[in-house]
Amino acid sequence: MTARPKLGSKADRDALRHDMTGAGCTVADIAIEMRIRFRMRPREAWRHAQGWTLQEAADRVTQVSSRRPGEAVAADASLVAKWEKWPGPSARRPTPAVFLAMADAFACSVENLLDLDDRRALPEGDLRLLSGPVPSPEAPPPALRASSQQTESSGSDLVRLAADESAAWAQWAEASNVGDLALEQLMADTRALASDYLTSDPLPLLARTRALRDRVFALLEGHQYPRQSADLYAAAGYLCGLLAWMSSDLGQLRDADTQGRTAWLCAELAGHNDLRAWVLSTRSKVAFWDGRLRDAITYARRGMAYRSSGTVAVLLACQEADAWSQLGAENEALEALSRAADARGSVTGEDDIGGIFACRPARQENYAAAVHLRVGRPADALRAADSAITLLAAQPVRAYGTEAQIHISKAAAHLSAGEAEGAFEALAPVLALPPDHRLAPVTRRLGELPVDAGGPHASGTASVGLRAAIEEFCLDSAPRHLALSSGEGAS
Fold it and tell me: Which of 94, 360, 371, 491 could serve as a FRET partner for 41 with CA atoms 20 to 30 Å apart?
């Protein structure tokens, strides 16, 4: 027997909306009926009365709010769902700016979006602010609304009224929900996360990064000076870029691409060229591991167009070389490596964030080793890998992911010469990594090692043992654990 869909299913909602529209009912009538019949919260009922998905509602809220001075809202489907559920558990309280934007998007009054639970849970100040009519997108800020609605004046009264209005607007414009010290701390916290990622377990750090990103998003829903908004967008962009990098390393490439798109939007809103370049580097990385090699090259070349005083140009050139070598284009790959060396000589300042958003010489040599391997230059690959190991040992912080890939390149060079025992020795530090540090790029590169391509030596005991060790390593890795889990830790 086929189970009936639950009451309030999409089919039920569509049928109700169709019948009521045909009977001449308004959207408000449909929303009221949705609330009563399907026991919906008011904001959810109004969205379904319009026939919108969560993302469609988010797009409209973002669009209408962008026309409100100082009250822009950056909405997505997840946020709309949390706003609808509030004040229930795992929800988020909508700010007055959010209520006003939702009312504008749904073409209703704010009162239509509030029920008794909302009114009991809202701060008194928010309730007072929302008690008046919903202003149009072109309306003045809250401090001006009362004075702008006064009757027409003339003579000296008009002059005084104009001055009062200007003073009221200045008071509103001067207010900010974030101070310069708080912005400085947000950037310091972002730098710490980018640095900690080089040495820490990815999932707990992802949770910390997500929490900081949510704090920045919440601040952006409020009001601050334009320069402070730009700084907040920059912080949000770096944090989303960091989440994209982590998601990719955990094998979640679709989620990584989503984070990359959001990071790019933040970079554009911030007008921050260094962030633009780092976001394009991140997107190049995601495209590379997703097999979209031409996209990886395009992102890397676009990133090079943004002049930076840090090391992002070095990494972008390395990433372009990486993608060309994967395509088998030797000349293009080697030319890109040459541009990476030139970019290294042109570095004039420090990286703004550092950590994963920096390209130290050891990281550059790691890319060079991988590129030389793919274009059939194992001797050059071995020299680059040895150089990278030496450089890495001199760094105050050793990134375990980069170190693992360096040893994998060294092992691959040994295998190309039929030296399975040498490969096994080179891989010893990699195979000793704890499971939480066995990230997707490491397991992917291990799986690509030509264990069976070493001639007569490849069939020896060392080769068989190496193959078994690699299989066991990849089965007990962070991406595999995440894929087999419910995914709650990385949501």
Answer: 491
Beta bridge partners of 354: 357
Mean pLDDT of 162-172: 71
pLDDT in tens, 443-471: 999 888 887 654 444 445 556 777 888 88
Nearest to 405 by CA among 424, 378, 429: 429
Q: Which two tokens stand for residue 123?
A: 């701060």
Longest Cα–Cα distance in the chain: 102
pLDDT for 324 equals 97
DSSP string of 87-146, one letter each residue: TSTT--PPPHHHHHHHHHHHTS-GGGG--HHHHHHS-HHHHHHHSSPPPPTTPPPHHHHH
Placement of tokens 């949390």 in the chain = 82
- 300: nearest Cα among 315, 225, 310: 315
Query: At residue 328, does pLDDT exceed 90?
Result: yes
In contact, 401 and 377? CB cutoff 8 Å: no
* Phi, psi for residue 457 in degrees, rounded to 5: -70, -25
Q: What is the rounded CA–CA span in Å between residue 480 and residue 476? A: 7
Identify the CA nearest to 96 among candidates 76, 77, 68, 116.
Answer: 68
- Classify each residue of 144-176 as buried b or exposed e, where b means 16 or more C-beta atoms within 10 Å of its C-beta: bbebeeeeeeeeeeeeebeeebeebbeebeeee
Give Cα separations from 2 to 5, 335, 407, 440 (angstroms).
9, 63, 56, 41
Residue 152 amino acid letter: E
Q: Percent of the chain at pLDDT above 90?
A: 49
For 82-86, what is the mean pLDDT? 92
- Sign (positive or negative) of CA dihedral 47, 50, 54, 55: negative
**16-43 pLDDT, tens digit each:** 988 888 888 888 889 999 888 888 999 9
DSSP label of 490:
G
354 phi/psi in degrees, rounded to 5: 80, -165
| Three-class secondary structure of residue 178 per DSSP | coil
